[in-house]
Structures
1.
Amino acid sequence: MSDTEPTTARPSAKTGTSPATTSSGGGSASQLVSDRGTTSIADGVVAKIASLAAQEVRGVAKLGGAVSGALGSVVGRLRGSEHSTAGVGVEVGERQAAVDLAMSVEYPASIHQVAESVRESVIDRIESMTGLQVVEVNIAVTDLVFPGQEDEGKQDTGRVS
Amino acid sequence: MATADASPVEVAQIAAAAAAGVPGVVGFHSGTVGEIATYGGGRRIEGIRLRPGSPPSIAAYLVVAYGQSLHDLAAAVRQAVAGALAEHAGPGFALVAVDVHIADLRAAGTQGAGP
């Protein structure tokens, strides 16, 4: 597979999401084989890295669209997970990864600057932690959050604690 | 060749202790329904699986901290586990292969229940 067109090519080899199915294949960044054993990184780990990297950026209110955010927080609470990967989609190939993000931005931040910072942060974190080359980070800004609006949202989700 | 190899659960325990001692490893991942574990002697060692053979191999399913290079972390785990097994698990484990699976990630500062 050629890596010469990173802006258009999505990663070709789709690996499974469960740790058990990522154990085949080798010689790649996410799947490093040495004579003393292999290393594999689950797709969910790449998604969590993207989620945390995006949330490190100032101006990002929260990840996920309105629906996926509400659903994600309910599912997250039911499963007891510390942070969901709501709003994050990843496609992980042998050497490359592509990321799709949905997020809301705090008013009155520059949406393009926030998006660009998120892109930089996600690429930096995924590349430094996993060695995967990030070919694209697609960002959908789904909402604008005004000062004080955050509390309302927290009260809503607080009903299902 | 004089000493016998440790039992699977003993091997898993040695491996788990060695892996847990590596900075950046915050826990073990036993799969979505807890299927990844080694059993024996009434004990259950989560996130460790043995594959017999010559040389045998061992798979460690790890929950790791956010921030560092996962390949460096995996190399450190491999070295620690292989070293501990070579030393404590008997001659059959002198050349053990260690498969490291990064199964989950936890943000720094968050503790508590597993994934």
Note: Residues 41-158 of chain A form a domain with the Alpha-Beta Plaits fold (CATH 3.30.70.1350).
2.
Amino acid sequence: MERMEHTTTNKEFNQALTPGKPGKPVKPAETLLSIEDLHVSFHTYAGEVRAVRGVTYSVEQGGSLAVVGESGCGKTVTVQTVMGLTPIPPGYIKGGKVIFNGQDLLQLSEKQMQSIRGKDMGMIFQDPMTGLNPTMTVGRQIAETVQRHQNVSRGEAMERAVEMLSLVEIPNPRVRANQYPHQFSGGMRQRAMIAMALACEPLLLIADEPTTSLDVTIQSQILDLLQNLQERLGMTILLISHNLGVVARLSKSIVVMYAGKVVETGSSSDIFYNAAHPYTRALLRSVPRMDREIRGELASIPGTPPDLFQPPEGCAFAPRCKYAMKVCTKCDAQPIKLGDNHYVSCWLHHEANPNNPFENKSENGGRNSD
Amino acid sequence: MSRYILRRFGFMLISLWVIVTASFILMNAVPGGPFTSVKLTPLVEKQLERKYGLDKPKWQQYITVLKNLCSFDLGLSIRERGRSVNDIIKNTFPVSAMLGLEALTFAVTLGLTLGIIAALHRGKALDYTAIIIAVIGVSVPNFVVASVLQYVVGYKLNLLPIARWESFKHTILPAFALGLGTLATMTRMMRSSMLEVLSQDYIRTAKAKGLTSAQIVWRHGVRNAILPIVTILGPLTAAITTGTLVIERMFGIPGLGKYFVESIYNRDYPMIMGTTVFYSALLLFMTFLVDITYGLIDPRIRIAKGKGD
């Protein structure tokens, strides 16, 4: 599979970035994280689950990339592998590279990973209700990260924790720092989780479904906060979500995953206005729209994702795809270049296909395959 | 908090009164009396009954028991002639308590360590070793352990004294025999509790912060896993420090344990009442202590108590 490169479309955004900490060499518009042909499987009693089957994508320094796809498509496993959080066993990494800041993380020892996690890469998780230790004050839990990675006293680390809490807009941070997680609401806890992940000013923030378990108004607040922090700190965000609304607000580039593979990548306008893969299109159709009066059922994709115990030979989406051709069930498509950063893995766009159903809808110079 | 303690104390007194009443009814419901097994002339028996107040109606006896309890007087033992129950407890409880605490220290420290090690090496050789120790500890009765120890360590190897209560050396074998069962319970509980905690999301968060494995296990694992252990530690302490008949008999230890059993055989009413009240009071106090400690470990409980005030 060929490498896919992303450049952030918004050049002004890149220039506005302030470099990270002075100690960390940062050059704008450089690839910070690149995942290359990553394969991750899990051994279970029933057999091998091939959760990630050759995923390739990369994140620019200061960029914001979103990975979307339905549950079980491997998006979380991919980033957990990046963080070194995939439990081994039962999981194991069959192949590929994870190049972060110039080094292959998969070659590092657990000890070396420990000094990168929390310091250069922060992560926030889906469920803030269970993600905090119930018997430790919130401030202490943030200070713990600072103390681990920076040579500071307990008091200084606590001071930093209070600062972080005020950064994530928690009122009364000094009082709040000495409280326990059960004294925080769900939204507050997610803010505390963000504060914790950002305490050491990481180069990369991985947000794994950061708003999924929150109610809609709180979701919106958390997204505003993340957007705000990204602009102020010049942080690189890798967002994992199944919510296209969330993605639209936060991310400049999008990776669409299906059944352990990347099916389409592009800028958010490529994906939202010019989607090329039938799965991406179906996904967009299933988003509830306020501006359309549709009576009746919300659009959904018929069928279920394939069994990853025995992944299909051809395109994994073929059985659910109404445009599926003979070739789709036999052989998987390679990424085809459609625009500057717009790639799709779909036979419909192959130059040998005489009748591409999406061709006329494409505004971006049509298809120009590689 | 002080109001909470006061209220708890009140409940403890009520519980104790219920226990005293139930014990009084039960021991009088058992046929026979303190003098059934000894041959006495009717006149002597009458005189003895008068001396111990057994000739009075039951309700008067009950009132006397309650009155004496209020002044911490447990009365005179009928069997141990001339000795008060207070005296007997005062002389034998320290022995049982010392043996019990020794056994408990050994069982808790080793049990928790084994449990943690087993959980951290789930499914590996160390885990199975810990499980085997736990199964043996639970299933082999302590008198078997005691006699094997006496025979092998005491007689064959001649490393430690077989019996009697003289120096620290004398306490090692009985403490081990007494603590083995508790050790097994501790190992099993700590293992399962630790496994549950280690699968929690906040452990993953701790990992994502880059903490070392030791920091994750101690700060985030053990502290949360130990909560259920603290709960059983209270009743366990009360039970183990008040002595056991078997171990004390086998090792010739002058502890409190035998009085629990023998007082019932002898229908030694004041002794039955005394040991029961003493044990119950200790048990209630330990449970109370655990509840207070619990609040110190788990902040969620601490706050809930504050609201209840």
Note: The two ends of chain A are 13 Å apart (CA to CA).
